[in-house]
Amino acid sequence: TSIRVVSGAAGLVEAATLPEVHTVVTAVVGMTGLLPTWEALGAGKHIALANKETLVCAGTLIMARARAKQLPILPVDSEHSAIFQCLEACHHPREIKQLWLTASGGPFFGYTSEQLQQITPEQALKHPNWSMGAKISIDSATLFNKGLECIEAMHLFNLRAEQVKVVVHRQSIVHSFVEFCDNAILAQCGAPDMRLPIQYALTYPERRPCPVPPLDLTQAQQWTFAPPDRQTFPCLDLAFEAAALGDAACCALNAADEVAVARFLRGDISYNHIVTLLERGLRAASQVTCTTLEDILSLDSETRQLVEKG
Fold it and tell me: CA angle at residue 81 from 73 to 9, to 5 degrees?
């Protein structure tokens, strides 16, 4: 056929910068998404972002590049899409009091630290509401994924860490909500189906019919909300600690997590050892400053080597 196959980092960059491309959907997993997104912005492409690590690791640089190029970054993650949709009712950033990102709580909601000691990869991969890849499923089980989403939200919506909150909503129907300065709250609700936020990012600012089944609000339903158990799931607070330190700390924490999750999945470490490796990566970079993309990529590589040996 006339189709040419490319691969690796160079292949991603080539695909993301093709002259005929208008919008790049960054949907690869992990740090892999950073470089092609960076190059896509440099080539003048609109970004539909489903790769939270791009902003976690280099949010300051990426958002500055998008502003300089006057290019939109539209969120595809269900939580950030929900916030984006709610903020369309916002006339000025000062009207925003805080954001609430909903979390399902993962497969181990209600567990104690002792119960988590014997967790297997097979158990951690069984998310109660979403069908996802292995890496994000483990991150959801540890609540680290929600921490990544909080950092992403800070960059996407230009907010301080204290303005981003997390609440456990087991049903995954309310995808997130915004609380305004007058204490009004707007939420975006829908079935736990990624087709809707993907479509909205691709058709924005238009809405079009979508194959996602509608909610039947005439049927008896119970929607519950609860605070996350930060003591049993400390990865969430590690993400907020990294956010306070800056891009370098966030980059190192993410690199540590990618290695730790891979090691857990192949049976090298226990579930509870994941947080130990995350702390090691974060502490090693707590005094590091990154000002360029090359600095970020170098720190990512160094942290991976450190955590692979730990």
Answer: 45
